[in-house]
Amino acid sequence: VSATPQESGFREGLKVAGMMFLGFITMGLGLGVLVTSVGLPWWVAPILSGLVYAGSVEFLLVGMIASMAPLTLIASTTLLINARHLVYGISFPVQNVNGVLGKFLSMYLLSDEAYALNTGPNSHRFSSSRILTVSLGLWGSWVFGSTLGAILGASYLSHLKGVDFVMTGMFLILSIDSYSAVKDNKTAIAAVFSAVFALIIAPDSMLLIALLTLVVLLTIRHFVEVKHAPSATQEKTDA
Q: What are 160-208's pLDDT values in tens digits?
C-alpha cells in the first residue's frame, strides 16, 4: 500500500498498522501481567519492553531475570532467537527514512511486524513518515500494553495462577500453526529431539542447549540435502 498524493505518510501508517497496534497492546498486557506474577516490580515491564523490544524473547527474559540466570545465557539465547533480524536489513527500505536519528529508530525498532508492513514490491515508494509511524506505533503499543498489564497485575491480579504459562502456551500455538502451514516432519522431529536431548544432558541450560542442537541439526540437514540434490546440469541432461 502506497500513499496517495492527498494522503500523508502518517495517515497511511495508521491505516495499514492500526489494527496491529491493538494486537500489540493485547499481547503486551500478557507480558506485563507475567512480570508482576513472578515477583518483579511493575516498572520492569516498560523498561524491558521499551529497551529490549524483542517480542517472544521478552517472555523468556522475564523468567530468566526472575531466576537470576547468567548474563551469558541471556545474551546467547537472545542472539539465537533473534538472529533472523540480521538479514532483515537486506530488503528493509531504510534508505527511504530521513535523517540519522530516523534511520537509527527504524533499525532499532525493527520487528517482524514492522518488517512485514514496510517491505514489499512497492516499498521503494514508502515515505519516511509512513515507515516511522508503523515502527513507532508498534513500539509504543507494546510498551503501553505491557505497562498497563503490569499495573493491573500488581494491583488486581497478583494472585492469579497460571500466568507463567502464557509464554509456553504462546509458543505451543505458534508451533502448531507453523506445522499446520508447512508440515515439515524432519524439522519437527529435530526440534523434539533437541529439546529432549538438552533436557537430559543439561536441564539447567535446557533452552540454550536445545537451540544450539537444533541449529546444528538443521545445518547438517541443509548440507546433506544440497549434496544429494540433482544439479541443474544433470536435470537438463536427463530432460
A: 666 656 656 666 775 776 677 778 888 889 989 999 999 999 887 787 7
Owner of C-alpha cell 511493575: 42
Query: Does residue 169 contact residue 27 with C-beta atoms inside 8 Å?
Result: no
CB 25 within 8 A of CB 145: yes
Place of cell 501508517: 13
Cβ–Cβ under 8 Å, residues 109 and 138: yes
Are 31 and 44 in contact, with CB atoms under 8 Å apart? no
Q: Can you give 80-120 as a three-state secondary structure string?
A: HHCHHHHHHHHCCCHHHCCCHHHHHHHHHCCCHHHHHHHCC
Q: What is the pTM of this model?
A: 0.71
**pLDDT of the residue at 158:** 59
| Dihedral sign for Cα atoms in the order 204, 173, 87, 130 | negative
CA–CA separation, 47 and 184 (whole Å): 38
Listed residue (149, 158, 122) closest to 46, CA to CA: 149
